[in-house]
Specification:
The protein is an all-alpha fold. The chain has helices spanning 2-103, 106-133, 145-168. It has one domain (2-137, 144-160). The longest helix is centred in the first third of the chain and has 102 residues, at 2-103. The protein is rod-shaped, with a radius of gyration of 45 Å. Residues 21-69 form a coiled coil.
């Protein structure tokens, strides 16, 4: 009987140990699954974090662009005011040069033409700077070389003549 009781006790313990082992296996499997889920959630969180960082960079870039545009707008407004103040006297000088051209001797009319052309060129330069301040994309234009050289010659010739006369005296 004692042997039978011992055998029964051993069977009970084996059954209890088996249930305990089964419970440990189930809990271990739950831990493994929880760890996998946690790892997956961490990966998802890292992906969301990277996306958030990318969005922050885009937002910062957009903010910088907006600040630069605001600065350009202010510069454009200032440039427009300055251009107005400079172009008005240039227009007056051009008008006076046109009057002088009508009243002066023909040999001096080229100097009046040079003044008229230079004031016109100065106004174009001012307009070009205004366009730049308005932040429009640049465009390329074809130019006739002959025309550009002629414009340069018209600027330089009177100055060269005056310099030669100063250096060599009247010829």
């Amino acid at each position: 009987m004692a042997l039978k009781n011992l055998s029964l006790e051993i069977e009970k313990r084996i059954a209890a140990d088996s249930r305990f082992f089964d419970e440990l296996t189930r809990l271990n499997n739950e831990l493994i699954m929880a760890k996998r889920e946690l790892t997956q959630k961490n990966l998802e969180l890292e992906a969301v974090n990277r996306e958030l960082q990318r969005c922050n960079i885009e937002l910062e870039n957009a903010h910088n662009i907006l600040q630069n545009r605001e600065k350009l707008s202010i510069v454009g407004q200032m440039a427009a005011g300055m251009a107005h103040e400079v172009k008005n006297p240039l227009t007056a000088v051009r008008g006076m040069a046109q009057l002088l051209k009508e009243r002066c001797a023909p040999e001096h009319s080229r100097l009046a033409d040079a003044i008229i052309e230079e004031t016109h060129r100065a106004c174009r330069v001012i307009n070009d700077y205004l366009q730049l301040a308005r932040h429009k994309p640049p465009s390329l234009e074809l130019q006739e070389v002959k025309k550009v050289v002629q414009e340069v010659w018209e600027i330089v010739e009177p100055l060269a003549g005056a310099a030669a006369q100063k250096t060599h005296g009247s010829i």
